[in-house]
Amino acid sequence: MCIIENIQIGLSIGNSRYHWAWFLNTKLQSSWDTTHLTPDRFFHLFPLDLQSSIDQLQLEIDRIPIYLASVVPSQTAIWQQLDRVKVITLNNIPLLNLYPTVGIDRALAVFGAGEIYGYPVLVIDGGTALTITGVDNNNHRLVGGAIMPGLRLQIRSLYSGTAALPEIVLPPQLPPRWSDNTPGSIASGILHTVSAGIRDFIRDWQQLFPDSQIVFTGGDGELLVKYLQIESIDQLRFDRQLLFHGMSALLKN
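Structure (tokenized):
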């Protein structure tokens, strides 16, 4: 006989998008993204693999639990109205020294990275906000981190805050430092400055924790890895699923 706990759905509400995942017996199966939407619409956006598993297990869709991690309070309030939504809070995450205002997405991602790749670990999340978060191997304690505007937010701020500067597209490789045109100058200014800043954080972290794992995640995480590899920083990896790895680890417990 099937039990409803066979499948769980994870929802991470970010500043720009919804990030979804589904778990079979707490093991991550797949993930997908959507725009912000209302609960009545989400049933129509299931990926085929999830819908197929629901049909095979003969589960009632409206009874499958949803585990919610959100950094947008207004969106959290919408989903909390569903009885089967379980909100993940900092109290659920077994890391020490989590200060009250640390984002649940940051905490889940660095917890997931540590559980998958080992501690100590440094996570660089290239999202709407670009965050850097480090946890040590001494009782898994949050050492700290940094927050700055993400790459696309910096690009949009120049475009929206000036009269003549264009909105550029992120290049697939780190651009030349010295540019003879305006779009190239914007790309150079933002990407070389951000890359240099991240590189400095990584090198300082490596002095503190030489054996640390360094993992990138987020929408622009893979691009950041490419930019930094050109800057001769080795041992970088990208994992888009860090937050859901953290959620999976919580579900197992």
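The mean pLDDT is 91. The chain has two domains: 4-87, 118-248.
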